[in-house]
């Protein structure tokens, strides 16, 4: 198994260089085809009081801004594609509903892997992709790039946040091409349950055995949250172990989901140091 169709979600010109770089770097490892996807978002029409009629000047200005952004993003993508020599194509759709529109969702559903960038909180924009709903609607894995990481590097150390859920299982198998190429893969469970099928000490043993049959060497580790939340335990593990990639189910650790999509403080956002592969 390898990624053969990679979809790069190019929401803004600020993010496009990093997303394209990561997409073509991953594509180079497996000869994948890269699709650059952009939504040219048509903003709400400004109305002029007291008659509340559309302001044609403002409407044209907004449309011109959106189209200029599309041109800038396309230029970045095509330059990266030419430099890489990889198979690629460009897709752009004008829409008033952003990345939730049907053509974009349909494009994403046919990809093996989606790649998107976390928004930089210092650069707010209406055109940032709504990855939350995008992931929910497409059902495809999303590789999120933290805004503090702009250059691709080899993914050598991977942490799987394992809680036995279907989301965690899907994420793990979606990450298989990356896991097989990694040097170290750690299956990490926080507060594992003591059940008839496993003890806390053997949490993740079954998935470790399955991965071993795919040629992935893993280590098992567990931790107790004690007076901390499970989220902080995982966060500390990421930094302490110099992890390159976190693999997790999208709705199994709400702290990270909120952190990626701006639901927590700027301090937490800055603490996100690893690429994150999300599935649900």
Automatic annotation (TrEMBL):
The family assignment reads: Belongs to the universal stress protein A family.
Q: Which SUPFAM superfamilies match?
A: Adenine nucleotide alpha hydrolases-like
Q: Which residues form the signal peptide?
A: none
What is the name attached to this protein's record? Nucleotide-binding universal stress UspA family protein
